[in-house]
Description:
Layout: E1 3-6, H1 18-39, H2 44-50, E2 51-58, E3 63-65, H3 70-78, E4 81-88, E5 92-96, E6 100-113, E7 128-141, E8 144-158
Parallel strand pairs: 2-8
Antiparallel strand pairs: 1-5, 2-3, 4-6, 5-6, 6-7, 7-8
Amino acid sequence: MTTSHFSRSGAPGGPFTAGAADAAEVGTLLDRYLIGLDHDKLDDEWARGLFTRDACVEFPISRHEGIDGLADYHRAALAAFERTQHLNSPAVVVLDGDDRASLRANLISTHVHLPAGGPSDDASRAPFATGTSVEGEARRTPGGWRLSRLSFHLIWATGRPPAPAG
């Protein structure tokens, strides 16, 4: 089994190889996931285009296992906010043979709260922002590369987190 390390731009100083193309595709999965949180319709098609059937997504306060209900899980988590913006660093991708990869990246997420007392209630709408590290795994499937695990680890936070559900 060969393990290869790539940044999103390919091997440093080398040609853009098939391995680098795979690494770029895996890194793009994280980009598509984060942009999707901010701009896409989070439905089952969205989830199937990014994740394996047995995927696990883990945040500091919750986790979800399996593709079933994954879009609902994300929609429910984002429902506490009027809008969000997720900005990530380029992913560092490590290929493990032909069909497995791991990735790491940094992420800054900004969440704008829904108005609590109407549009003039600016104090309750101060953004909640976090800095996290992201670790993940991906597998090559018949449909292409898909994420099998994403794990978010909090480094810092500022502002008021969302109120607990319930």
